[in-house]
Write a structure and sequence with these properties.
The protein has 265 residues and is of the alpha/beta class. The protein has two domains: 196 residues, 2-enoyl-CoA Hydratase, Chain A, domain 1, CATH 3.90.226.10; 64 residues, Lyase 2-enoyl-coa Hydratase, Chain  A, domain 2. Helices cover 47% and strands 17% of the residues. Helix 9 packs antiparallel against helix 10. The longest helix is centred in the first third of the chain and has 19 residues. The chain is globular and about 60 Å long. It starts with a strand and ends in an 18-residue tail after the last helix. Bound molecules: hexanoyl-coenzyme A. Hexanoyl-coenzyme A binds next to helix 2, helix 3 and strand 6.
């Protein structure tokens, strides 16, 4: 059981690696992921994060059913809250996150992918919230994030049936942003991450903060935040560099904040 973190320039790739190639999310695995996310969020040199699963079968096949089978109600609540903490750490990660879905994303696996900003997948990928087949509703944010992403009608169908959605349908529904042959997934995810990382990190973070209020259904607060963050950007090195580079007909170079050496793991 492991969560591997690999950094290349400004992109951090976090790989879930557990249980028989299916990357089942036991409590310990979630703890490792949470620690990794907390470390990476403090490091401003990480401008984009990719979350993926080890191997070729699964992004993550969900919470560990063996671990859940005998939970009591208070333990169930703690289990839901642990998953929420991880999904919230992804959703609230201050820079963009990309789920690279390399196979099954089921239950809790789907819920972690839904907490990322962008979802890329392989042609073999399948996503589902199959919890009702196990006698439980989704518990790590699926009822909220899937409904927000694809609307109540389609989310209801998928959550009430628990059926697995193949990549083409997930693309049409807007769950996946794009679908690639398996051998190109990580290359495409990295290209996208690098494209994001080449832009002004503080502007991208500001956009993410304002967009979060749209996602939370708070458009008035979102517009106020957008205006404040837009205004705050003027006079910063990144705003000056972005606009000067345009006027000088050259590519901008955004140096961004220096990493805090204490935060680097
Ligand atoms: C525990 C799991 C597991 C899981 C698979 N296994 N998924 N164990 N938790 N989520 C185990 C199987 O029991 C089996 O163990 C081994 O992994 C291989 O699985 P197979 O079924 O033999 O593999 P395959 O035929 O390739 O099918 C893969 C699969 C299927 C499609 C992913 O295993 C499957 O449907 N798994 C369950 C997926 C699921 O329901 N996820 C949602 C969980 S609920 P043995 O010992 O026999 O080798 C959830 C809730 C989140 O995530 C919120 C909580 C609050």
């Amino acid at each position: 059981m492991a969560v591997d973190v690999l950094r290349h320039r400004h992109v951090a790739t976090v790989t879930l690696d557990a249980a028989a190639g299916l990357n089942v999310l036991a409590r310990d695995q979630l703890g490792l992921l949470l620690d990794a996310l907390r470390g990476l969020r403090e490091d401003p040199s990480v401008r984009c994060l990719i979350l993926t699963g080890a191997g070729t079968k699964a992004f993550a096949a969900g919470a560990d059913i063996r671990e859940m089978a005998d939970l009591t109600e208070p333990e169930g609540l703690a289990y839901a809250r642990l998953g929420h903490a991880v999904a919230n750490a992804l959703e609230g990660f201050p820079r963009p996150t990309i789920a690279a879905i390399n196979g099954y994303a089921l239950g809790g696996g789907s819920e972690l992918a839904l907490a990322c900003d962008i979802r890329l997948a392989t042609e073999e990928a399948q996503i589902a919230q199959p919890e009702v087949m196990l006698g439980i509703p989704p518990g790590w944010g699926g009822t909220q994030r899937l409904t927000r992403l694809i609307g109540p009608g389609f989310a209801a169908e998928l959550i009430y049936t628990g059926r697995r959605v193949k990549a083409g349908e997930a693309l049409r529904l807007g769950i996946f942003n794009a679908v690639y042959p398996a051998d190109r997934l990580m290359e495409e995810a990295t290209l996208l991450a690098e494209q994001i990382a080449a832009n002004s990190p503080s502007a991208v973070s500001a956009a993410k903060r304002a967009m979060a209020l749209a996602v939370a259904g708070q458009p008035d607060a979102g517009l106020a935040t957008e205006a404040a963050l837009f205004a705050a950007q003027f006079g910063t090195a990144e705003q000056r560099e972005g606009m000067t580079a345009f006027l000088e007909k050259r590519k901008p170079v955004f140096t961004g904040a220096e990493p805090d050496p204490k935060a680097i793991r």
